[in-house]
Amino acid sequence: MQKSKPVLIIICLITGFINAQRSDLNGQIIASDEVEGLHILNKTGLKYTISNEDGSFVIPAKVSDTIIVSGVKYQKQEIVISLSNINLGQFNVLLIEKVNELNEVVVGKILTGSLQSDLENLNIKPDINFYDLGIPGSTDLPATQNEQRLYDADHGKFVYYYGIGLSINVHKILNRINGDTKEYKVRVLMESNEACISFLQSEYSSTIFEAISIPEKHKNEFFQYCLEDIQFSVICEDENKINKVHFLLEKLNMFKIQLDEGN
User: Fold this and answer.
1) Core-most of 40, 80, 97, 242, by most CB within 10 Å?
2) 142-146 long-range contacts, Cβ below 8 Å, gap at least 24?
3) What's the rounded Cα separation, in Å, for the pair 140 and 236?
4) What does pTM read for this prediction?
5) Residue 218 carries which DSSP code?
6) What is the pLDDT of residues 213-252, one digit of tens each?
7) Does residue 123 sit in helix, strand or coil?
8) Among 251, 246, 238, which residue's Cα sits nearest to residue 124?
């Protein structure tokens, strides 16, 4: 294990050097509709921000970083930062509006403002899958690039025993020591939460905003507010739709109170 120390030192130095190259870039979103509160993620550098009212934003980046811009109204865009972007210190992102065809959502005739009462009035239909239709299929989605990297870095046991002998999983241990495993876990979580908040936005926006009304310009900001909740990942993993709506309505109620207090 003594021989691995120089390797770890070199890795740390290289990582520090690469991170030092990342500098703030000015971005500008160009779209046909509202551009405030859109999500901007530097997938490579694990940096995150949201757009301003005029569509401008600032995010740390370097050459070859992948920037993802997403919003419920637009198709997701991925931009790979070039050397010319770095030299100019800025880049533009053109977004294309998308049309989401949502299933009809039936809301009770009376919305009282009581979360429990309004939840009981929501008619949320379960998804129909191939099992319901008697069609063979699989629910397993292909792993993302970061999920595959996490698996490659951390799969298996630390020690394997073979009779009286043993084998040490050096690859797994080194990835834990140099921080690769932790970095991939953070990336996987960020990707998962980003996908979840986009789903909640498209699936439940009309329902929750009819129950509790807020200004249009704050709706994207509300979903970012939800994303910052420490229990957000738990809600995403919960398969019960009622629990998801209950979470969103509770957060929306608190968010509206904060908006009212700020006015």
Assistant:
1) 40
2) 144/188, 144/191, 146/184, 146/187, 146/188, 146/191
3) 17
4) 0.42
5) G
6) 999 999 988 998 888 888 888 888 888 888 889 899 999 9
7) strand
8) 246
